[in-house]
Write a structure and sequence with these properties.
single chain; alpha/beta; D-tyrosyl-trna(Tyr) Deacylase, Chain: A; five-stranded mixed β-sheet
Length: about 140
């Protein structure tokens, strides 16, 4: 399980359809925008571990965590985090878990965060999405579980 975590001053995700663009998740003010990739072999336990790490990671202003600052998170599924472009000109996605495996595990990360008390916005799994954010810092870290 891989996550790219950005400290933000607001972020949103919109889903694009043939006739519309609909904002499906948004956080206002200081928080984290988290792109989550799921690999083969990832488990609910890893999802719970990632949720705990995200909730307690001290990267907000003043070295606070989301739990300390009561800051929201925007969690978006991102299978392309497991893209491999070492050979050729097109990335392969072989390391990314298929949707039927990945979707419930991303949902588990979100559910565990909410159990911990977090306010969590989300994207829509498998949709054509547009993510907008203001990176504060800039500050971006990558986590591996």
């Amino acid at each position: 399980m891989r996550a790219v975590v950005q400290r933000v001053d607001g972020a949103s995700v919109a889903v694009v359809t043939d006739s519309d663009i609909e904002t499906v998740g948004e956080i206002v003010g200081e928080g984290l925008c988290v792109l989550v990739g799921i690999a083969h072999g990832d488990t609910r336990e890893k999802a719970a571990q990632l949720a705990r790490k995200l909730w307690t990671l001290r990267i907000l202003e003043g070295e606070k965590s989301c739990s300390e600052a009561n800051a929201p998170l925007l969690v978006i599924s991102q299978f392309t985090l497991y893209g491999d472009a070492r050979k050729g000109r097109r990335p392969t996605w072989n390391a990314a878990a298929p949707g039927e495996v990945a979707e419930p595990l991303v949902g588990e990360v979100v559910a565990r965060l909410r159990e911990l008390g977090a306010t969590v916005g989300t994207g829509r799994f498998g949709a054509d999405m547009r993510v907008s954010l203001t990176n504060h810092g800039p500050f971006t870290v990558q986590l591996e579980m």
